[in-house]
Structures
1.
Amino acid sequence: MVGGIKIISNPFLVEDGEPCEIKRDWRERLLSMPWKPWTATKTITPKIPMKKFLKLPNGTYMAHPQIVNEIKNLVSTGPGL
């Protein structure tokens, strides 16, 4: 409960970040399946916490644990002056 509102934390509430290319090392290039040693880079898409809250039909809210902790810290410290 945060401020009288029930919030459930769910670590699967993530969204895609900015894709970035990284270099593949020689071991990965030579031992990967399917074998493509000429491909020197690969593109990965990092997962970042979703900043939105989801409202469930029973009136509770769901958010990523990192966002829930940020909200708890803001509520516990109070308004900054």
Note: The chain is about 25% helix and 25% strand.
2.
Amino acid sequence: GFGLELDNGVDTFAISHPGTRGAGDTVGVFNVTTAGPCQVRLVMYERGGGSEVELYAGAGSYGAWVSSMRLVGDTANGGLEVWSDPVTGGGSGGGFAALIRTDLQTAMEGANASAYIRIPFSVADPGAYENLTLRMKYDDGFVAYLNGTEVARRNAPAGTPAWNAAATAEHPNSLAVLYEDINITNHLGLLQTGANVLAIHGLNDGAADGDFLIMPELAEIGQVTLTPHYFSPPS
């Protein structure tokens, strides 16, 4: 499944396929009244691995994919150009200022490469979900725990990292500001009715490093129960 959102500062457009399926096309027609660049957010999730998503665009109104559409980003073959806002390298904050809500620079820089983050959340019915994704923006590494059980890690020392552990590798700033989607559906059983906790052991690549970012998000896909109905008149 996937979700696509475009925003040109005047209008917002969106299409999605909120369920699993085999290979197929989803076509959306947007009436863009103002020319210029758009912010694009494309989120894709998979269930068993090996899935891919491609984004094509073309002028006109179509009900299905046509060969005149071009792969977005493939400028050599006529596709629309894409780019990311530049991310500054090094220095305090590493270009993350707009993302930071809790500033730990004074507490961490020169003192500790680790930080512990706990995010409480509530679940009304764990059985209502069939997919679970951990979305992470991070610099430089982390270990994630759901209700006390490890569910994901990146650039982390083996085993349980020490309270002052550092990341084993640098996560480039250009990637740190992009969500990495990690399928943790095999840990759905850890969800509890009521109070839950997502805990993150955030890891910088050194206590002296001037930039650090941990930005987690849990995304879930719910089940939809279909009720049989009869046609009127019956058939």
Note: The two ends are 33 Å apart (CA to CA).
3.
Amino acid sequence: MSTSEGSFSLISPKPGVLVFSVAGDVDIDNSDLAEEWAERVRLNDGELTVVDLSESTFMSSDFLNILLGLRQDHEDRGRVLVLVASRHAAARSPLETTGLSRFFTIAPDLASALSLGRHRHGGGEELKGAGPPPSAAV
């Protein structure tokens, strides 16, 4: 059982931008709920989605797969997906340990992620991440 129950929220700070915030543990106890929230993200038609993992304390392999699914959905639809995880955030470790960090654009904070979305549409460069997602599930 998780020591820090996960929580999720969605906000749209401006038109075309969605911020999906994840806090606490995302594990087997709440992976179905995480998938429901991710489906809300998929239904959004904005140009930029930011997944803010800065308050996440644990991410299960199920949640890593959810993130991969969001990445593929965004790529297929020509949308931008940026993860927020500072170098010291608990969320950064599973992304780096599994090698998934190289498949995502990762920003150190929300302001950088929002700025990155603007630059990517204007020909700017990504902070981190490139290439297709791995074919095997985590």
Note: Residues 7-121 form a domain with the Transcription Regulator spoIIAA fold (CATH 3.30.750.24).
